[in-house]
Write a structure and sequence with these properties.
It contains twelve helices and 19 strands. The chain is α+β, with helices and mostly antiparallel strands.
Length: about 400
Amino acid sequence: MIDSASWAQRLGGDAFLAQTCFRAHKVIRSNGTTSPSPLTWGDLNEIVAAHRLEPPRMRLSRAGEAVPATAYSILRTNRRGVSWYQPQPAEFHARLAEGASLVIDAIDQIHPPVREAAAGLERFFRTPVQVNAYASWTAEEGFGTHWDDHDVVVLQLEGAKRWKIYGPTRRSPAWRDVEAPEAPTGEPLADIILNPGDLLYLPRGWWHSVSADQGRASLHLTFGLATQTGAEFLGWLCDDLRVSTNVRADVPRFGTSEERADYLAAVRKEVLAALEDPGVLGRWERSLDTTHPGRPRLSLPHLAAVPAEPGITVQLTVPRARVDEDDQAVTFAGAGSEWTFALPVAQALRLLATGRPITLADLAAESELTLGQAAEIVTALVTGQAVAVVGGSR
């Protein structure tokens, strides 16, 4: 599993976050080190065969344009009238050989090893992560020269891919923006080849073009990092200020000029007071971490309490859950809920917060709790959708 510690080690840990993140691109070479791949060609073949993935979830792209699904699939309809496009291998192969690239969006939702890698990266960057898979066979650029509205971490899995990086032409462009960045001119500032195991970090707004021009089929994952901009912060602050009567009050649209001026002065005072609070960004970040639903999953066959069976394996489903402890109690916050436990439960919560699967027996032993107590804690968190049973059930 590529966990947060592995990502931190590869990317550069705190130094990367302080010096590179949001500021510059970075290439991290594998230097011959190998680790289990979260996605192989065999995995990709099975995913396409086993799932009804239709555009835009799965698509072929060529020269920046989507290839019509009818060019590589056939429309199937079952006896109940349900229709879907089923890929036809010969036509699918032909379109790829002609220069199209294969894309599967949000592959982390359907392939567990990629999901675990995404959760580890989310713990490191403290923001939601979506993973797309890209496969290419020719030197033709599947998407042309373009920019993304979010930062990305690229992991090359198979073959090689050329990245021409031009840098940004507009500072911090956004999905919702007042103007679009101008296309870059001149030569790229970097022209690199990614080989298996190599990583590339690219900030949002950096123009780039990509091609598999090394004579080898290329497969890579792009981990997209959700942006957390000033606009998102101010949106949260507006909601947070609803505790104020002045903010909740009707705007005096029909009032006198003096009434309107008094209203603006009152609101300005509220906003400035909130911004002068040195802890306001911390409260916002905590809200981001603890209200996000994470990656919820069922815990079947258990519909109510999780039984105190030593082999039952559980795992956190909210990568950025918070564990806070004082001299009175310990709190666990995630998936929009918060739980308060006695201090002896703290170690169990910290073990769960690592995101690694753990059996109830190990959770109890390493926390000095009884098996029944461990099961009670897990039951509360499963009910709150912050933890799931992932194995060991009879």
